[in-house]
Amino acid sequence: MYDFLVSNFKELNWENKLKNLIDVSNDLARIHESGYIHCDFHSGNILLNQYSYFIKSFITDLGLSKSLKESALKGEIYGVMPYIAPEILLGEKYTQAADIYSLGIIMTELSTGKRPFHGSPFNPGLALNICNGLRPEFSEKTPKCYIELANQCMDSNPRNRPSAIDISLKFSEWRLIVMKPWISNNEESDIKRSFISADEEIKTTQIISTNLQNSLYTSRLINAKEIKLAYESAKFRDSTICGLNVSNI
After folding, report:
1. Which pTM does this prediction carry?
2. One Pfam family for this entry, by name (predicted)?
3. How many CB atoms are located within 10 Å of the residue 211 CB?
């Protein structure tokens, strides 16, 4: 998906983006309803097919998918670090909520036309920052409702993330509002205006090519044990410093 996004960013308005997100979230909902977790969900695993006047998006590469009954991790995970949920980086068991986190990251890509954390090395330092709440940015005029939903998807607590079907319904609601010739209430009017304003921003957005970093955005083994050890060491160090500061008061 990313290559298509970069090549066509200025031609893709928000109605098109919402249509792609509806396709993707519906696919994810079907995977989840079948009792599976994708486990390696990122924009490189989204295929876009063009059929004359419209584009259809599909989730691909289910080779690492797991059933909900499968056992917990054993210290190693496989994926693209910026798309991996913080609890997974810390070695917890995969859940469907981890796929939802990945969808939130993909939402930031569609907003900015940029890879998540482009320019940053994918090392334990980035993993620690993600576990401590670092998330990719949005473009300046991205609709507030869209940012709020993406942030819910990227919530540090997996229990707070919405389901794929609820996300799909929200995308569908917004797309219908954007396509409506007449708006009947203030809330819908505000939503439509925000997407129209975001469309204007697209025309002047500078897209930064990340071809030199493309190899980073492929799935690879990540040592969750190493990340968890560094995370716990940092927490212990912070608590020790805090304790020293309190004792000096």
Report:
1. 0.91
2. Pkinase
3. 8
Between 5 and 175, the more confident residue is: 175
User: Across residues 120-131, what is the average pLDDT?
Assistant: 94
Q: Where in the sequence is the domain holding 175, given as residue range(s)?
A: 2-247
Distance CA 131, CA 226 (A): 13
Token pair 């996004």 is at which residue? 5
Backbone angles phi, psi at 69, to 5 degrees: -90, -10
Q: What residues contact residue 219 under an 8 Å CB cut-off, 6+ apart?
A: 40, 42, 44, 64, 78, 79, 80
Closest CA to 106 of 158, 55, 149, 63: 149
Q: What is the CATH number of the domain that holds 57?
A: 1.10.510.10
Positive/negative CA dihedral, 213, 217, 219, 222: positive
State the total domains in the chain.
1
- φ, ψ (nearest 5 deg) of residue 36: -120, 165
- Structure tokens belonging to residue 202: 């697209």
